Structure formats: structure tokens, C-alpha cells
């Protein structure tokens, strides 16, 4: 294992890929945390034997020594309770998250949140500067850390710095609302390569840099005044497709999928939703559409049930608490009006599950319903496809998920159009196995060819290929 002080590949992400938990005997322990980022990056980390810098997820822990967990070299960055509130819940999730997701909720702008964002980004950059070996590659992840590339480059001009944005990058009209828009753009420009989920997001960024910062641009390259090029390109993220398929094929998962179907009363059709409980995911509208189909007699409870897994997320942010209440009231109403003893219309689970259980749910589900109002990619859609080695099952997918650009054979819906969504749910319900197979085979081909290993390989290869700064003296080894 490479010692953290000389890692050649350093991942910098808001969270470590583990959570601090208390074991039943009261001792502290670590547990793998769910979420798109962890799922996507873990295989890369293992393959490259790198170090991962991130916040361990609790503010009252005073043990911040680097450690190795399950073969991963992890370097914790501390955060005070006030910083969790202002940097994480505040600026990251109360300002940037809604602003970058089409204003699905109203972003709040507070100067003290911004100050906290700057301070925490500086701490991450300082840590990366300590850990990276001479000439190392540092790959900074996501919207919480957009200032890190520039802060890091100021201290360590010898590094190759990449940045990847997992969420959408908004059009200029929306981004321009941000009082600190210029600082964010300049922060990102510290990188050699900035990756986005879709070409449209990369184009939004290049256009903004040209108009707001005034740098010269040509196609996907920005030229800084000192001649250093910065590339902004799309790298659609993916999943460990083979790993998911293998899990789905295992005897345990197969048995569990059968159990799930039986527990639901062996209906003809199981609809499934799996999301973090987030207002961007369109959970409320999709359940409403399903509830109306039952109410209108278009679907019968003997034929169709809905399973919604809503993983707890950002529970201290008010908008998330309100959303949870709204969804739970809706589910209660639909089940109260239409459910029968032992047969609720919607089985709603506000809990986190092991990967095996997720695979079993994907195997058990006839129709996977993924209807975000805006989503960078959406890995759940790809995971469902990966698990359907039988070439069966239907995917209903929002056209506003990044995944829709690749999974063109899904039943595509506009999640703002409830009637349209109802019609598409019925269409998927009525599709025969030939039609389902035709679509699923095409989607599986895409997901098998473009997995997360390829995503990381493409990004890291392009990062190495960005031409060096014309002034070679800048990429000198760090003074010892
Ligand atoms: C962000 C962007 C982008 C969920 N619940 C459990 C669980 N999960 C796993 C899923 C999936 C991941 O979490 C969720 O990924 P998504 O892509 O669907 O959504 P976000 O969390 O919003 O991710 C998104 C992604 O970053 C990657 O770039 O696609 O657009 O918003 O892998 O399976 N996993 C387990 N138990 C759960 O209860 N084990």
C-alpha cells in the first residue's frame, strides 16, 4: 500500500467512502456509505492504489489520522458542526444543489455560507497539497469542492489536476444568479481538465468562462492569459456493470428476488423506484401518477404494486424534511384509499439497504421508474439494466436524467407531465416480452460497453494528455 504522504493518485471528495457508526457493543466502527460517488469511484481507487481525502461524516470525532479500511487508504478532513451547517447543508446543498438542478427548489444565498465554503475548500486543498507525491495526479470531485483546483494549483503547480462535476452544470441564465459566480469559475479553472456528465454542461461552462471571465476559448479548450490550456469535456459516468450482473446472477440474490415477489403477493407487475429522498428525483409526481392509475381503474391492485425505496438523505435540511412529510402523506393517502389488508398499493421503505438487496429488488421489478426533474446521470437506471441479464424488464426514464442520452430505448417521459407519465407507465405495462427484450438488449449493450472503469480510464487518459503549460519551469518538482 502506498503511504498517504506520497500518493501518485489522490481522490479529493467531500465524503470519505465510509461512515462512522457505533457498533452494537458501543465501539466506533466504519461502514461503507451509499451514494453515486462512492459507487462510481471505489473500483478506480482500488485499481490505482491511491489515497482518498474526505470528510468522515461526523463533526464530533477527534481522531483524524489517516487510516486504511477494507484496503482503501483514507485521509479524513475535519469539519466543525458550524461548518457542516454552513458549508455542507448551507452552501453546498441549500445554494448550489438547487441552483445546478434547474431551480427545482429555491436556492438561498447567504454570505456566511459562502465564507464557510471558501474556508472548507482551502482545508481540502491544503490536505491534498500535503498528500500528493511530486507530479502526482489529483482528481477533485463534485460541486462541494469547486474552489479546490485553483487553491491547490497555487501551492502545487507540479500537479496534474482534474475536476469532475457529478451533477448538471446550469445554463448561463441560472448560474449568473450566483453572487460568487466568478470565483467559482476561476476556482474550476485551476484544473487541467474539467469533466461533465453531458456535452451541454461542458458547453455551458465554456460559454460562461468566455462571457464572465473573458478568457479566449476554442471548442472545448479555454486558454488562460498565461497560455495554460484548460479542457472542459463530457465523460458520462457509469457503473461497475459486470460486478452488478454477477451479483444479480448469484443464488442468494435470485432467492431473495423470489421472496420479495412472494411477499408482495406475486402480482403480475411490480413497479420499482429507488432514490435518495431528494426533491430532484421526482418521487412525489411518480407516486401520484401511479396512484391515479389505480384510482381510475387503469391498473388493478391484483396486477400491479409499487415499491418505493427512498434512502434517507440530508435529513437536517428543511426542504428535505418537508419533502419527506409530503411523500409520506401521499403514500398514506393512496394506501388508505385503495389498499387492502395485506396488499398496500405502495410499499414505501425509508431505509438504506445492502447492495445485495438492491440487486434483488432490481431482479424482482418488472418496471423500473426513474423520473427525476433533473439528474446529472442517474446510476440507478444503469444498475437496473445491468441486473437484467434475462433481457426482460422495462425502464421508464425521465428525459431530464443524464442517462437518457445513452439509454434511448427506455420509455422516456417528461416528469412534469403527469398525464404523459401515466400514459407511459401503461405503455410499459402493456409491452410484450418481445418489445421489452428488444429495448433491454440495446440498453445492455450500451451499459456493458461503457462501464465505470472505462469512464475513469477515459478521464485519466485525457487528463494526462492535456498539453503541458508552455512555461516548463512551472511543472518543476516540489521543493523538499
Ligand atoms: C449523484 C448525481 C449521478 C441508493 N440507495 C441505496 C444505495 N443507493 C445507491 C444506488 C446508486 C447510488 O446510490 C445513487 O446514485 P444516483 O446516480 O442514482 O444518484 P445521486 O446519489 O444523486 O448521485 C447523479 C451520480 O452522482 C454519479 O455521478 O449519477 O446524477 O446526482 O448507485 O444504487 N445503495 C445501497 N443501499 C441503498 O439503500 N447499497
UniProtKB/TrEMBL annotation:
Source species, domain of life: Bacteria
Transmembrane segments: none
Gene3D superfamilies in UniProt: Glycogen Phosphorylase B (3.40.50.2000)
Family, similarity comment: Belongs to the glycosyltransferase 20 family.
Name of the featured protein: Trehalose-6-phosphate synthase
Organism taxonomic ancestry: Bacteria, Bacillati, Actinomycetota, Actinomycetes, Propionibacteriales
